[in-house]
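Many introductory courses stop at the sequence. We go one step further.
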Amino acid sequence: MTLYEHLSELRTRLVISIVAVVVTTAVMFFFYNQLISFMQHPYCTYVAHHPDKSITGRCQLYITGPLEGFTTRVKVSAYAGIVVAAPVLLWELWRFITPGLHKNEKRYVLPFFVGACTLFAAGVVTAVLVFPKAINWLISISGHGVVPLFSPSRYFTLYAAMAVIFGAVFLYPLVVVFLEIAGVVPSAKWRAWRRPAIIIMVIAAAVITPSSDPFSFLAMAVPLLVFYEASILLGRLLHK
């Protein structure tokens, strides 16, 4: 393909991806109450066991401006829309990459797509499972006599951002395997880079984790280290 054809292909994939996100965001907009009920559950559980950590003793979030409720609904719907549209986004990404592959490499497109969807879903599930411990730690570490006054914008945005970021970060093993199969970076290089890679991944996990709590950090850092070793092994097997 020529440069113009690649740019035209990129435009097509971007348009389809944007339309998919807009449609899923619109759908999630109408399921907003169910979304916030699910996302608020960890905080409500904590308040139920620690009523002194709430001004009224009940699980409530407080808006501080007339537009905050609407903007929060749009943000949460957009994040949820991205999660729901993830299979379409990943498929369009692979469709864009496919023209640049050799015939023997194109056979990996479907397995890579399935693997990408699985890893993204695993990242989202990990974020959902670790968020209750994260919010408990963040509230408890504030100390005695400190009562949180959460706004829905910051609380729900943190929850949704963790889900999207964990899902995206969990895709990185596919990049490593793809580079190995394509011969861009052989597995021997990845093995030689193991020590600096571990340091980089630990630092990246500490920086990328939105909540900055130890539970979220470990939930991201440990899988990254495991994925690194597994991707090296899988890349070697597939390359052979």
